[in-house]
Amino acid sequence: MGEVLIELDGVEKVFTVRRRAGLVRREKRQVRAVDGIGFTVDRGEMVGYIGPNGAGKSTTIKMLTGILTPSAGRLRVAGIDPARERMRLAHRMGVVFGQRTTLWWDLPLKDSYGLMRRMYRIPEARYRANLERCVERLDLGELLEVPVRQLSLGQRMRGDIAAALLHDPDVLYLDEPTIGLDVVSKAKVRAFLRQLNAELGTTVLLTTHDLQDIEQLCERVMVIDHGRLMYDGPLGGLHASGAAGQSERTLVVDLERELPPLEVAGARVVRVEGARQWLAFPAQASAAPLVAAVAAGYPLLDLSVREPDIEEVIARMYAGRG
Ligand SMILES: Nc1ncnc2c1ncn2[C@@H]1O[C@H](COP(=O)(O)OP(=O)(O)OP(=O)(O)O)[C@@H](O)[C@H]1O
């Protein structure tokens, strides 16, 4: 067991929303965005925090960074109560939001970094070393003189990640760090994060809708839904966690020509695109009889079997809860 860096116990966040319930009457309604969550993250872990829209991910991150105060429960980051000592915590953490930048829009990248240096009172030598490292590893050399508004999304994201790391944070929160990035930029960002974690031992909590981020970066994943923790463990275990029992494999069939949906016992057509059809069947069933039935009954060119992917397993996990 390592050193516990992040600690949540019975954490809740309830929002009160007012809405019109007639011409004059207003109704108060309570939204339980986070509904009793507990977990710990050790120093040096890289954890994926995933769930569908509105699950409570951002609310959790906001409580961890001290932007929001929990309605109930206990929360500590590096021994600090975030909401009470937000400024002290700020020196220990970095935050990157994929959707918006913390950089100054009109300033060249390096001027933004200079402002960060003063804001966090980073000692000169340390600042230089960290900047140099980020510039090299994130390929920012050519971009330092460019105003942030002229950067592409991928460049801007790399610039933002560097900005979050200049003060050597213990923990880095990343909210959708690869959203909207092209394949090459995604790969660069992921490679950098892996390196950062391996070399400096920075703890990373990552929110994403891109399961490749999780597959390539996180040994542990937490799934949250309706404000509750539904799963906490290795990514591989998600397949086995209840949901996998009902999961399906897919037979992808290429026919000689377009046909109405095939009728094959034990499978159902879930998608048709021209002469290609997708047939779902229970994951634990053998594909052989299906293949035989398709080959016997239809003009078949080619076929392949797809294993259930994580996205599908997770989608089922959510669907199963209703
Ligand atoms: N300030 C607020 N006032 C009222 N309700 C809020 C507030 N912030 C969040 N909520 C509600 O709390 C729930 C959880 O929202 P949250 O943003 O944490 O979800 P999320 O998992 O981050 O979703 P997404 O993936 O869409 O960002 C939602 O129902 C949302 O509408």
From TrEMBL:
Key words, A-Z: Antibiotic resistance, ATP-binding, Nucleotide-binding, Transport
Recorded topology in the membrane: Peripheral membrane protein
Domain ABC transporter per the UniProt entry, residue ranges: 6-251
Region forming the signal peptide: none
Keyword ATP-binding appears in the UniProt entry: yes
Chief location of this protein within or outside the cell: membrane
Subcellular location: Cell membrane
Cross-referenced Gene3D superfamilies: P-loop containing nucleotide triphosphate hydrolases
GO molecular function: ATP binding
Residue stretches in coiled coil: none
Protein name (database record): ABC transporter ATP-binding protein
Originating organism: Streptomyces cirratus
